[in-house]
Specification:
four-stranded antiparallel sheet, 196 residues, globular, mainly beta
Length: 196
């Protein structure tokens, strides 16, 4: 008799990738792509065996998304690199030297977040616009649904926007760093330091 087990109940260690620190991973429906320190990029079909790709940058990479059939990774010194095949990566000009620590999307528009209150948006991963956020805290994560975007950051920072240009700070009810945010069909969920 087969006993159902929820996904995530059992874990296995994959192939060691050496001393590189991996900071983010994305799944496109078929392939996994992980990014990390020193511009490291690894790809995998099964999340066990990984193959290194050449990113063309030595900057640390902190975030990656797969949107509109394109991979977009962000990192230190305003680094933005993109690929449509996981093999060939090209650098894009984000117009900033701030460290970009996260990237998400809202209705197909990319939202990169970073140090000093940085929020950058792009509809094509090539042309980026910097939004005025009114905050200086590091912003870690972004997501969106049904015309509303949410960005989270240090010290409980929580920003919302309906046009991706004008951002408003709202109370999160915490002073903990909020390092991740996601959304289901009805509600946003932010998580962070100290079990928040």
């Amino acid at each position: 008799t087969a006993t159902p087990r929820p996904a995530g109940a059992s874990w296995a260690i994959g192939t060691s990738l050496g001393a590189v620190s991996l900071n983010a991973v994305v799944f496109d429906g078929t392939n996994f792509v992980a990014v990390g320190s020193g511009g490291a990029i690894f790809t995998s079909l099964d999340a066990i065996a990984w193959t290194a790709a050449t990113s063309g940058t030595s900057s640390d990479l902190y975030g990656i998304v797969f949107v509109n059939s394109r991979y977009v990774a962000v990192g230190a010194n305003g680094t933005v690199i993109t690929s449509s095949d996981r093999v060939s990566w090209g650098a894009q000009s984000a117009g900033t030297t701030e460290t970009l620590v996260g990237i998400g999307q809202s209705n197909g528009t990319l939202i990169a977040t970073g140090t000093n209150g940085t929020v950058l948006t792009s509809s094509d991963s090539t042309n980026w616009s910097r939004a005025t956020t009114g905050v200086t805290q590091t912003l870690y994560a972004a997501t969106g649904l049904n015309g509303r975007a949410v960005v989270t950051g240090a010290g409980g920072t929580l920003l919302t926007s309906t046009d991706l240009s004008n951002w408003q700070a709202v109370s999160s009810g915490t002073s903990a760093d909020l390092r991740g945010v996601t959304v289901d069909t009805a509600k946003f969920v932010a998580v962070g330091a100290g079990g928040t």
